[in-house]
Amino acid sequence: MANQNDAVLEALSLAIAVRIPVLLWGPPGAGKSSAVTAMCESAGFPYEVVIASIREPSDFSGLPVVGEEGVTFAPPRWATRLAESSSGVLFLDEISTAPPAVQAALLRVVLERVVGDLKLPDDIAIVAAANPPDQAADGWDLSAPLANRFCHLDWQVDTSALTSGLVAGFPVPVVPEVGRDWTRQIPLAASQVGGFLSVRQSFAIQPPTDRSLAGRAWPSPRTWEMVCKLMAAADSVQASPEAKRNLIIGCLGEGVGLEFLTWLQESDLPDPEAALRDPKSVVFPDRGDRLYAALSAVAAVIAADPTAERWLAGWKVLSHAASEAPDIGAMAAKVLAQVRPEGVSAPPEAAIFMPILQAAGLFK
C-alpha cells in the first residue's frame, strides 16, 4: 500500500530539483524536518537549518556595519557557508512561528536569495516547514506576500507507513535528475496556462480576501510562472499525476488549482510534433481556449528548435487550424515571426496573419 506522503515527497523533490521555494505544512512531530534532512543527505546536498522562530530580522536582512565607505549589511555565518558551497539547501524551519518582522525580512531571502549584502548562488534551493497557526507554539499566520513566494505542500501522518518504518526503517527520499533539457518543456506548459487564462482571466491574480487563507497558496503571475516550471519538470521525468496535482494546487490554491487541473484533463490537446509532420491529419479543438493552447504549443516546440523546415511547417499548421479565426492564432503567429530563421521568407500561409504581425512591427 502506497504511503500517502509518497506523492508529497515526489513533489517536494521536484521543487528542490528546479529550485522553486517549497513549504511543507503539517502538525508538530510529523516528520517534516526529518524528511527534508534525509533528502539532503541522500542527495549529498550541503544544507543549513535555520529556525526562523528564534531569529531576528537582522539574521536575514543583515547586521548593519558602519565602515569608511558607509553602512554595509553583514550576512550571518550560515549564509556565507551556503554561498561558499555554491549549491545546497536552505531549510527554514518553524516559519509559521516567526513574528511579522522576521517574515518581512524573509521576503527578499526567499524571492531573490539575498541575505544582507550577500547574494546566494542561484543553485541554492529553499525549503521551509510550518505548523498550522492553531497547532504552533505562539503561531502566526504567514503574510500573503511571503506565502505567495512558495509552493505549499501538505504533509500527512500515515499510520501504516509509520508502523512499517519503525520496524523496517524509513525509505530515503530521492531528488530526481531532471536533466539539462527540462526547460524545453516550459513553453509547452506555458501554452496550457495561456489557454486556461484566456477564458479565466480573473484567475491571473487573485489575492486572498479571507484572512484565514492569506498564509496559503494563491494565484498570481509569480505562481503561474512557478506552475509552468514545475509542470515542465514533472513532465520531463514522467512524474506521477498525484505529484503533479500537489505541485499545481500548491502554487495556486485548491480552488483555482482544481479548476485548472480539470481544464487540463478535458482539453485533450493534439501532439504538436504530430501536427508539424502532417497538419491535416490532426484534429484541432473547436473551443477558442483549447485551440489557443494547441497552437501556442506548436509555436513553442518550433521556438525550441527553429529550423527552416519546422518554421515553414508551423505556418501550415496555423493556416489549417486558425484560418477561420486568425485572432486565436495571433499569439502563435507572433512567436513564429520572432523566431524566423535567417534568410527564410514568409510563406503564403502567413498571409492571413500579416495585418496582426505588421501591427506588432514584426513584418514590414
Q: What report would you give on this structure?
A:
- This protein has two domains: 6-263, Rossmann fold (3-Layer(aba) Sandwich), CATH 3.40.50.300; 268-359.
- 48% of the residues lie in helices and 11% in strands.
- Strands 2-5-8-1-9 form a five-stranded parallel sheet, sandwiched between helices. Strands 3-4 form a two-stranded antiparallel ribbon. Strands 6-7 form a two-stranded antiparallel sheet.
- The model has no long low-confidence stretch (mean pLDDT 86).
- It has 364 residues and is α/β, with parallel strands linked by helices.
- It is built from 16 helices and nine strands.
- Helix 9 packs antiparallel against helix 10 (241-252) and helix 10 crosses helix 11 (254-267).
Major sheet description: 5 strands, parallel
Portion of residues within helices: 40-55%
Given helix and strand content, the structural type is: alpha/beta
Please report which band the strand proportion falls in: under 5%, 5-15%, 15-25%, 25-35%, 35-45% or over 45%.
Answer: 5-15%
CATH superfamily of the largest domain: P-loop containing nucleotide triphosphate hydrolases
The N- to C-terminal Cα distance equals 63 Å
CATH class of the largest domain equals Alpha Beta
CATH topology annotation of the largest domain: Rossmann fold
Write the layout of secondary structure elements.
Layout: H1 6-17, E1 22-25, H2 32-43, E2 47-51, H3 58-61, E3 63-67, E4 70-74, H4 77-85, E5 88-93, H5 100-112, E6 114-115, E7 118-119, E8 124-130, H6 144-147, E9 151-154, H7 159-168, H8 186-199, H9 221-236, H10 241-252, H11 254-267, H12 272-277, H13 288-304, H14 308-322, H15 330-338, H16 354-359
Parallel strand pairs: 1-8, 1-9, 2-5, 5-8
Antiparallel strand pairs: 3-4, 6-7
Helix pairs in contact: 1-10, 8-9, 8-13, 9-10, 10-11, 13-14, 13-15
